[in-house]
Design brief:
Layout lengths: L1 H11 L19 H20 L1 H4 L3 H26 L4
Helix pairs in contact: 1-2, 1-4, 2-4
Length: 89
C-alpha cells in the first residue's frame, strides 16, 4: 500500500510547477509524453521513499507524501531537461 501511495504522489508531482501556464498547442503534438512523464514520476516517487526510508520513519504520513511528490517532480523535470537538451521537446 505504501508503494501505491508513493506512486500516486509521484504521478501528481509530474505536473507541478507550471502545468497551468500556456500557451498549450491544440492538439498536443505528442500526447503520449504526458503518460510517460506520469509513469516516470510514479517510479520516482517509489524510488524517493525507498532512498529516504530511514529519515521518513519518524516523519509519518506527510513526510512520505512530500518525499514521493518531490521525487516524482525531480524525475519528471530531469527527463524533460534531457529531452530539451536533445531538441525533442
Amino acid at each position: 500500500m505504501l508503494y501505491a501511495f508513493a506512486a500516486m504522489m509521484g504521478w501528481c508531482g509530474t505536473k507541478w510547477p507550471g502545468w497551468w501556464r500556456g500557451p498549450h498547442p491544440v492538439p498536443d503534438p505528442e500526447p503520449w509524453w504526458d503518460l510517460a512523464y506520469g509513469i516516470l514520476g510514479a517510479i520516482g516517487g517509489i524510488v524517493a521513499i525507498s532512498v529516504f526510508a530511514p529519515e521518513l520513519r519518524d516523519g509519518g504520513f506527510m513526510a512520505t507524501a512530500t518525499a514521493a511528490f518531490f521525487g516524482g517532480t525531480f524525475v519528471a523535470t530531469a527527463i524533460a531537461s534531457l529531452m530539451a537538451m536533445g531538441g525533442k521537446r
